[in-house]
C-alpha cells in the first residue's frame, strides 16, 4: 500500500463508527500517517485485507492447529518493551510464540485492544525466527512476518503503537535526535543551570520540591520534608511533631499551605498548594554534586515564571473542571484543574520547545512519542522519597497521585537517555511499513469485513483496575485528539458504568472478534484481574460471542511458566485463555439437529478434535482438564445455552455416554484417531501427579477438593476421621451467603463407602445413581427457596445451580430471573454458570 494523505472525505467515511475520537479533523489528519496509521477508524483496512488476505473457503480450508500449551517467558527487559511504559503491556517476544504457533507467514493477525502495539511488533518480528524453533520444535516454514491489524480506543495508545511498529533507520534517527536535542539545549538549556562556584555553572540533573504545610495548633509554616525527616522520625511513621510548638499529630493533620496564583495563559486566578525547591542535584566536570537552592537559583526561578513559553495544552481536566473524574482527590489535587497544572513552569518551557522543534524533522512522530513517554516523570507526580535517595521511584502507576515531595527532572537529559532505548529497539527490529495497519476506535464496531482474520491475540481491559481514558487524558492533550470514553470497556463510577455495563461492552467486543475471525481459527486472551465477577464477565463474553474455550492457564510471570487452571479455582493471577471459532458446517449441523441428544456428542467430538493429543512438560504427561468429564459437560452446556439450543442431556446420561462413545485414558477422553499417540507417549512417559490449588469457599469447591483427595492419584479412599482434619484446614473462609453443608453431608451426597467405612469416588456405573439422588435432594432444597419470600441470605449454592439448570430446561425463564433477583448480586456475578442462565433468561422475559 502506497503512502497517502488522509483527507476529510476519508474521515467522513468512518465518522459514524463507534469510538470516533474527540478532536478536530485537522488534528486527526496531522497525527495520522495514512494508510498505515490513522488517529480515527482506519478507512483503508478493507484495502489492506484485500491486498494481503486469503479469502476463507470452508471446502478448501485445510487449517488445523492444537491449542498452544508451552511455557512462555515474559522477557520484560527487552529494549522494545522498555522503550515506552504503559498501564498494561505484554512483552512482544511472549506474543510472538503464540503467533508462530497459530499462523503461517503472511497470515493476518488482529489485536483490537492493542495498547502500545506489542502484538504488531511480535507479528512483524516473526521474519526472524531467533531460537523459537529450537525451543518449541515448531518445524519449518514459520519464518516470515505476519500482517497485523491493530486497533485501540485511545489515540495516545495507537500513536505509541504506530511509533513502535513504523519503519525507522537507526542511523538517520540517531542523527535527527541528536540535532533536535542539541537545538533545544541551545535555546532553553539555561533553565537547568545552577552555580557551582563564583565562576562556574553546573547542569541540573533534577531538583527536589516539597510542599509547605501549616501546623493545625500554632499555625506556623514548615516544609513537609523537614517535618517528616526530623531526627527520630522514620519514613513509615504516621506521627510527627511540629517543628515550632512541638504538637504531635498525624502527617495528614498538617494543613497544606495554599497560595493564590494568577494564570496568564488562561486569564484566571487559582489557589494552588505552595511548594518550594529544597535540593538540587547537578553535574560539573563529570562529577555529581548536591546543594540547597541559593539566591541565584531563586532568581532563575523568578525569571522562568516570567518567560513566555511556546504552546502547551491548558485544557480543563476531562472537560469537567476541578472534579475531573475517578482519580480526583480533594487532598492532593487542590488547585489542579487544568493539564498544565501538573508541571512546573520550567518543564513546561522545555516541553513546549521540544514539541515545537520536532515538527521540522522526518522522525517528528518518534520525537513526540519520546516526549509523551517522558510526561509522567516530567510532572509534579514524579515522587521523591528520602528513604530511597539512591534511586528514582517515579510516579505511582495506575493513578494521577501527586506526592508531597517531587523530583523535577532535566527533560533534555531524560529524553536523551530514553532515546538510546529507541535506537536500540530500532536496531533490534527493522519493521516493514506494509506489514501493519493501525486504527483508532472502538472494538464494538471494527472497520473490518467478516471472516478475514487468521488469528487474534488480545489483552482486554479488566474491569475497574484502570480508567484508561482518564490516565491518558494528559498525554492526549499534547496530541489534540482524545479518547471517546462512551464505549470504553471499564467499570467506572464517574462514567456511570457497573459490572453489567462492562460485561455488555465486552460481549459486543468479542462479538466483533467472532465476526471477523475465520472459522476454525483461534483467539488467545491474556487477562488479569483479582475479582471473580470480572473474570466471569470475560468468560461469558467469550462464550456468548460463539467461541469455545479450549484451554485456560495460569501465567506465572515470575517464573515465566503456565499451569492449567482448575475451573473451580478462584482467579487472582494472569490467565491465558485459548478459544476457537467453530466451523460453519458444525454450527449448521448443530442447529439442524437441535432438540436431539446428538448435539451433545457433535459438540464433544469437535471439541476433542481441537485438543492436543498429548502434552508433555518437564518430562511428564500433563493431565488435560478440558478432556475430563466434568469440564466437557460444562463446555457442552454453556455452548448450547449461549447459542439458544436446548441442552439435550443431563449430567448422568452425559457421563454414561462419554464412556460408551469415546476412549478413556487416565480420566481423559479421546477420539479414536488421537488415542494411539497418547498411548505411545504413555508407554515412555510418566503421568504428572497434578493437585490443583483449590480455594474451598463454597460447596462446589469443597466437592472438587474431596474428589481430588479421594482420587487414586492423590490419597485414594479415606475414612471420615482421616478426611475431617484436612477438610477443616482447607475451609478457612466460606463465602458470606453460603450455607455450607457438613462434611458428612457432602460425603453422603457425592461419594460411596466401602466395607471398611472408607469414602471413595464412585465408578461410572454407580456415579449416575449417586448424582440423581443428590440432584433430587438439591431440587427439594431449591423448591423451598422458591416458596419462601424476601431476599435469600443463606443458601446452598449447589441447590441454586441445580434449580437454575432444571428451570432452564423447562424454559421457565421468569422463575430464574425472580430467584436471581432475590440472591445477593455477588452470588450471580461470581458464578459463571448462574450468570449465564440469568443473563440469557433476562433477555427472554
Secondary-structure map with pairings?
Elements: H1 8-14, H2 25-31, H3 45-52, H4 79-82, H5 92-102, E1 108-111, H6 118-125, H7 132-136, E2 147-152, H8 155-165, H9 170-188, E3 193-195, E4 201-214, E5 221-223, H10 224-228, E6 239-241, E7 248-250, E8 255-256, E9 258-263, E10 268-273, E11 275-284, E12 287-291, H11 295-306, H12 345-357, H13 364-378, E13 405-409, H14 411-428, E14 436-440, E15 453-458, H15 468-471, H16 473-479, H17 499-516, E16 517-528, H18 532-545, E17 548-556, E18 561-564, E19 574-580, H19 584-592, H20 598-609, E20 616-617, E21 620-621, H21 629-642, H22 651-661, E22 663-665, E23 668-670, H23 672-684, E24 686-687, H24 699-710, E25 718-719, H25 720-730, H26 743-750, E26 752-753, E27 758-760, H27 764-787, H28 797-809, H29 813-820, H30 825-829, H31 832-842
Parallel strand pairs: 1-2, 1-15, 2-14, 15-16, 21-24
Antiparallel strand pairs: 3-4, 4-5, 4-8, 4-11, 4-13, 6-7, 9-10, 11-12, 16-19, 17-18, 17-19, 20-21, 22-23, 25-27, 26-27
What does this structure look like?
With 845 residues, the chain is of the alpha+beta class. It folds into three domains: 8-166 and 436-576, Rossmann fold (3-Layer(aba) Sandwich), CATH 3.40.50.150; 173-423, no CATH class; 773-845, no CATH class. The two termini are 50 Å apart.
Quickly give the CATH architecture of the largest domain: 3-Layer(aba) Sandwich
Work out the number of β strands: 27
Detail the poorly predicted runs.
Answer: 131-141, 566-571
Question: Order of strands across the widest beta sheet?
Answer: 14-2-1-15-16-19-17-18
Mean pLDDT: 87
Largest sheet: 8 strands, mixed
- Helix coverage percent of residues? 25-40%
**Number of helical stretches of at least 4 residues:** 31
CATH class of the largest domain: Alpha Beta
Distance between the first and last residues' Cα: 50 Å
Oligomer: single chain
Rg estimate, integer Å = 31 Å
**What structural class results from the helix and strand content?**
alpha+beta
CATH-defined fold name of the largest domain = Rossmann fold
* Count of discrete structural domains: 3
Query: What is the CATH homology-level superfamily of the largest domain?
Result: Vaccinia Virus protein VP39
The coarse overall form would be globular
**Strand composition percent:** 15-25%
Amino acid at each position: 500500500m502506497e503512502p497517502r494523505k488522509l483527507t476529510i472525505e476519508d474521515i467522513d467515511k468512518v465518522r459514524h463508527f463507534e469510538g470516533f475520537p474527540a478532536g478536530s479533523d485537522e488534528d486527526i489528519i496531522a497525527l495520522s500517517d495514512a494508510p498505515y496509521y490513522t488517529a480515527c477508524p482506519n478507512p483503508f483496512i478493507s484495502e489492506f485485507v484485500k491486498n494481503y488476505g486469503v479469502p476463507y473457503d470452508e471446502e478448501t480450508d485445510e487449517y488445523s492447529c492444537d491449542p498452544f500449551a508451552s511455557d512462555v517467558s515474559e522477557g520484560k527487559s527487552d529494549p522494545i518493551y522498555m522503550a515506552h511504559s504503559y498501564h498494561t503491556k505484554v512483552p512482544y517476544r511472549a506474543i510472538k510464540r503464540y503467533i508462530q504457533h497459530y499462523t503461517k507467514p503472511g497470515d493476518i493477525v488482529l489485536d483490537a485492544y492493542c495498547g502500545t502495539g506489542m502484538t504488531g511488533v511480535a507479528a512483524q518480528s516473526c521474519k526472524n525466527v531467533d531460537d523459537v524453533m529450537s525451543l518449541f520444535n515448531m518445524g519449518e516454514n514459520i519464518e516470515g512476518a505476519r500482517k497485523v491489524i491493530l486497533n485501540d480506543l485511545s489515540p495516545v495508545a495507537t500513536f505509541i503503537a504506530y511509533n513502535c511498529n513504523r519503519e525507522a533507520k537507526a542511523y538517520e534517527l540517531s542523527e535527527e535526535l541528536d540535532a533536535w536535542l542539541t537545538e533545544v539545549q541551545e535555546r532553553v538549556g539555561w533553565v537547568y543551570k545552577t552555580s557551582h562556584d563564583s565562576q562556574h555553572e553546573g547542569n541540573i540533573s533534577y531538583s527536589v520540591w516539597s510542599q509547605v504545610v501549616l501546623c493545625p495548633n500554632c499555625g506556623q509554616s514548615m516544609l513537609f520534608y523537614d517535618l517528616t525527616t526530623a531526627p527520630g522520625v522514620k519514613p513509615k511513621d504516621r506521627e510527627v511533631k511540629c517543628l515550632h510548638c512541638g504538637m504531635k499529630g498525624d502527617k495528614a493533620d498538617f494543613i497544606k499551605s495554599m497560595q493564590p496564583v494568577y494564570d496568564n495563559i488562561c486569564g484566571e486566578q487559582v489557589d494552588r498548594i505552595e511548594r518550594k525547591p529544597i535540593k538540587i542535584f547537578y553535574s560539573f566536570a563529570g562529577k555529581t554534586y548536591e546543594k540547597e537552592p541559593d539566591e541565584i537559583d531563586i532568581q532563575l526561578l523568578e525569571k522562568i515564571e516570567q518567560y513566555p513559553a511556546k504552546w502547551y495544552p491548558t485544557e480543563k481536566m476531562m472537560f469537567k473542571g476541578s472534579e475531573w473524574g475517578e482519580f480526583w482527590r480533594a487532598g492532593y489535587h487542590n488547585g489542579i484543574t487544568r493539564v498544565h497544572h501538573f508541571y512546573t513552569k520550567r518543564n513546561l518551557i522545555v516541553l513546549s520547545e521540544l514539541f515545537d522543534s520536532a515538527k521540522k524533522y522526518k522522525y517528528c512522530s518518534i520525537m513526540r512519542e519520546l516526549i509523551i513517554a517522558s510526561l509522567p516523570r516530567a510532572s509534579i507526580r514524579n515522587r521523591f522519597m528520602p528513604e530511597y535517595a539512591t534511586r528514582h521511584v517515579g510516579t505511582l502507576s495506575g493513578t494521577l497521585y501527586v506526592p508531597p515531595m517531587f523530583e523535577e527532572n532535566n527533560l533534555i537529559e531524560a529524553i536523551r537517555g530514553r532515546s538510546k532505548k529507541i535506537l536500540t529497539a530500532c536496531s533490534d527490529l527493522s519493521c516493514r511499513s506494509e506489514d501493519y495497519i493501525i486504527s483508532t476506535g472502538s472494538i464494538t464496531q471494527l472497520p473490518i469485513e467478516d471472516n478475514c482474520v487468521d488469528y487474534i491475540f488480545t489483552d482486554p481491559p479488566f474491569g475497574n483496575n484502570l480508567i484508561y481514558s482518564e490516565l491518558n487524558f494528559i498525554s492526549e492533550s499534547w496530541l489534540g485528539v482524545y479518547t471517546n470514553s462512551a464505549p470504553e470497556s471499564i467499570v467506572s463510577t464517574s462514567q456511570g458504568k457497573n459490572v453489567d455495563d462492562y460485561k455488555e461492552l465486552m460481549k459486543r467486543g468479542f462479538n466483533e472478534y467472532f465476526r471477523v475471525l475465520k472459522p476454525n481459527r483461534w483467539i488467545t486472551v491474556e487477562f488479569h484481574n483479582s475479582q471473580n465477577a470480572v473474570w466471569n464477565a470475560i468468560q461469558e463474553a467469550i462464550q456468548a460471542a460463539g467461541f469455545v474455550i479450549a484451554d485456560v492457564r495460569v501465567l506465572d510471570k515470575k517464573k515465566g511458566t503456565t499451569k492449567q487452571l482448575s475451573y473451580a479455582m478462584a482467579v487472582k493471577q494472569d490467565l491465558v485463555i485459548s478459544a476457537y471459532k467453530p466451523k460453519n458446517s458444525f454450527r449448521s449441523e448443530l442447529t439442524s439437529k437441535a432438540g436431539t441428544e446428538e448435539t451433545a456428542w457433535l459438540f464433544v467430538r469437535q471439541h476433542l478434535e481441537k485438543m492436543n493429543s498429548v502434552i508433555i512438560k518437564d518430562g511428564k504427561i500433563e493431565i488435560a482438564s478440558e478432556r475430563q468429564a466434568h469440564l466437557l459437560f460444562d463446555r457442552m452446556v454453556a455452548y448450547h445455552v449461549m447459542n439458544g439450543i436446548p441442552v439435550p442431556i443431563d449430567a448422568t446420561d452425559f457421563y454414561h455416554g462419554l464412556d460408551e462413545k469415546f476412549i478413556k485414558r487416565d480420566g481423559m477422553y479421546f477420539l479414536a484417531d488421537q488415542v494411539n499417540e497418547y498411548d505411545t507417549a504413555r508407554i515412555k512417559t510418566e503421568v504428572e501427579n497434578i493437585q490443583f490449588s483449590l480455594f474451598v469457599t463454597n460447596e462446589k469447591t469443597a466437592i472438587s477438593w474431596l474428589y481430588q483427595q479421594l482420587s487414586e492419584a492423590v490419597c485414594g479412599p479415606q475414612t471420615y476421621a482421616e478426611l475431617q482434619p484436612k477438610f477443616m484446614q482447607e475451609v478457612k473462609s466460606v463465602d458470606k451467603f453460603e450455607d455450607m453443608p457438613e462434611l458428612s453431608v457432602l460425603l453422603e451426597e457425592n461419594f460411596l463407602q466401602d466395607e471398611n467405612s472408607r469414602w471413595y469416588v464412585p465408578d461410572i456405573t454407580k456415579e449416575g445413581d449417586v448424582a440423581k439422588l443428590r440432584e433430587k435432594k438439591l431440587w427439594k432444597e431449591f423448591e423451598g427457596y422458591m416458596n419462601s419470600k424476601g431476599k435469600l441470605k443463606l443458601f446452598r449454592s449447589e441447590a441454586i445451580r441445580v434449580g437454575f439448570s432444571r428451570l432452564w430446561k423447562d424454559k421457565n425463564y421468569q422463575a430464574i430471573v425472580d430467584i436471581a433477583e432475590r440472591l445477593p448480586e455477588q452470588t450471580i456475578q461470581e458464578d459463571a454458570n448462574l450468570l449465564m442462565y440469568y443473563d440469557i433468561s433476562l433477555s427472554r422475559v
